[in-house]
Amino acid sequence: MAEEKAYTQAATTGKYDKASGLLGKYDNVRRFWEDQLTGLFLRPALNDLVQRKLKNLERLRILDMGCGSGDGYDLIMDVNTKDPGLYEYITQAITPERLQSYVGVDVNQELLDQAAANYGNNPKMQFWREDLSAGLPERLKAQDPFDLYFTSYGTFSHFTQEQTIELVADICRHAPHRALFTGDWLGRWSYEWQDLWDAPVDSEYFMDYRISYIYPKEERDKVEVASFPLRLMCREEIDAIIKAAEIKSGCRIRPLKYFDRSILVGRHLETCDYNANCPALRTPINSLFESYTRTDLESLLVDYVPRPGFDHLNNFFEKFFMSTNALVKYTIRLLSGYNAETESFLDAPDILPFYAEPLKEAMHSMKRVIGGVGWLPWGDVRANVIEPHLGYSLRKLEMELQPGIGVGHSLSGIFEIIKEDEKSPA
Ligand SMILES: C[S@@+](CC[C@H](N)C(=O)[O-])C[C@H]1O[C@@H](n2cnc3c(N)ncnc32)[C@H](O)[C@@H]1O
């Protein structure tokens, strides 16, 4: 009886659930691609901020707006120092003792309860129910300034133009003499929603966003999937918001970086809800990162279908997918041409000089990795070493072959708020 009770208790905690990164909110793509890619783009500015604070004997204060279940905390705290050596094992830019406080705010109480359950034991973390649609709420304005005003995963797409300008202007007024601010919106030109590219660009456009991807394919049409409006954004629209917020607040906002997140792995690539020609890429890319799981690499190939009237976007996607396809095909050829007995390639295709530099680097690295570990007879090196490396190499292509204009699931901006007139330590 006691045993049965104990096992039942264990099962209901969820701790007995089979661990898999192939599905769900925290799938492999979210952890090893989306969070990491965001962190890699954030890394230079975050490291500079940490160094400046340390020099002034100060610690970091972070505000996470639309924090949901608090996942921004791990994303930020996992960002690495600039160049961690191979030997080091503590590599975070913000070690726990460098953090003074993290405040997460959201309107959704269920998500805040999850956040409290996940992080409630950390005395430096607080989660508050607040509505940001009318700017920074009084409770936040009454707090000491934050060093990083953070949003992620499309949170700003919940707001209209006017609401966003008001919120960004409030952030500027509240910020110290120098601070970082990140904004994240859904990208207007993602291949996932190619059917929506025709929406007029001279006015705000909110898509009807369905979270259909949380259901398995066979259930999607049978359940009533809830939807809500989310604004699609391109670079020019963000620039206009930043300009207006500068004028309103009297502060300078310097864009440090715009980046497209999830061109190749957006969640709606799986559903075809807004583009019937979408390739279901997230599943095989999740599989690349999954230990002891081999992937059908052919399923990573994209047969891009252009949309008439959008030459500049078609040109970008054509080149981008031809590059990812080239890397995948190259890897397939290397795997089929490797001889484990002689530890050499019977057949290795040429890396052509006119390929883009990131593609050439990715191909060279694939060859060196496969040549380096292909002979190893234990530990399934194809599933556990080679395929994850292909995943990281495709991610590298997404990072380095992108324009930062709204061609991914999200368009993110990293900005520095500068109040020149205030005399403060450098
Ligand atoms: C796409 S989710 C991102 C959640 C989280 N940052 C993450 O990393 O997964 C957007 C979040 O914005 C929150 N949100 C929407 N409108 C809001 C508002 N007016 N004020 C505060 N939060 C809001 C939602 O509740 C949701 O948690």
Sum this structure up briefly:
It contains twelve helices and eleven strands. With 426 residues, it is of the alpha/beta class.
Runs in which pLDDT lies below 50 for 5 or more consecutive residues are: none
Name given to the CATH homologous superfamily of the largest domain: Vaccinia Virus protein VP39
Mean pLDDT: 94
Q: What class would the helix/strand composition place it in?
A: alpha/beta
Shape: globular
Number of strands: 11
End-to-end separation in angstroms reads 66 Å
Please provide a written account of the structure.
The protein has 426 residues and is an alpha/beta fold. It folds into two domains: 256 residues, Vaccinia Virus protein VP39 (Rossmann fold), CATH 3.40.50; 119 residues, no CATH class. The protein is 38% helix and 16% strand. The strands form two sheets. Strands 1, 2, 3, 4, 5, 6, 7, 8 and 11 form a nine-stranded mixed β-sheet that branches. Strands 9-10 form a two-stranded antiparallel ribbon. Strand 2, helix 4 and strand 3 form a beta-alpha-beta unit. Helix 6 packs across helix 8, helix 10 packs parallel to helix 11 and helix 11 runs antiparallel to helix 12. Bound molecules: S-adenosylmethionine. S-adenosylmethionine binds next to helix 3. The site of S-adenosylmethionine has 17 residues, from helix 3.
Summarize the SSE layout with pairings.
Layout: H1 2-12, H2 28-55, E1 60-65, H3 71-77, E2 99-106, H4 109-119, E3 125-129, H5 138-141, E4 148-150, H6 161-174, E5 178-187, E6 206-210, H7 217-220, E7 227-233, H8 235-249, E8 252-261, H9 282-288, H10 311-336, E9 338-339, E10 344-345, H11 357-373, H12 381-400, E11 410-418
Parallel strand pairs: 1-2, 1-4, 2-3, 4-5, 5-7
Antiparallel strand pairs: 5-11, 6-7, 8-11, 9-10
This protein binds S-adenosylmethionine (SAM).
